[in-house]
Please model this.
Amino acid sequence: MNSLASRIASSKIAKGVVIGALSAAAIGLTAPMSSASNEASWQQGCRGYWYSTSGHGYCSSASNYPSYSYWTQYDCNAEIDTEHHDKLYNGYVGKYDTHECTFKINKTHVTYSV
Model:
């Protein structure tokens, strides 16, 4: 009888392993892939980046003399688009603004003002 009980137990463990592996594969196949896109051109040292639902402004070297003012526009797919104004110092490097769209972001665009 011990051998029957051990076979039943190993059968349940094997089924659990198979179900776990199939669940992990299903999650991996249905999860959206996130890849970065960016503007082709830099605007006075800055440009926009976006992923599937979030966008941000990034500078390699802010150079909008004399004001260093930047407008970052977030083009959301199914909601009102958003625009943020940021003042940066000369030579600023790094991410400076972020916005999260609920469903999808189409583009993030950076412009400058004097």
Remarks:
- Residues 8 and 14 are 10 Å apart (CA to CA).
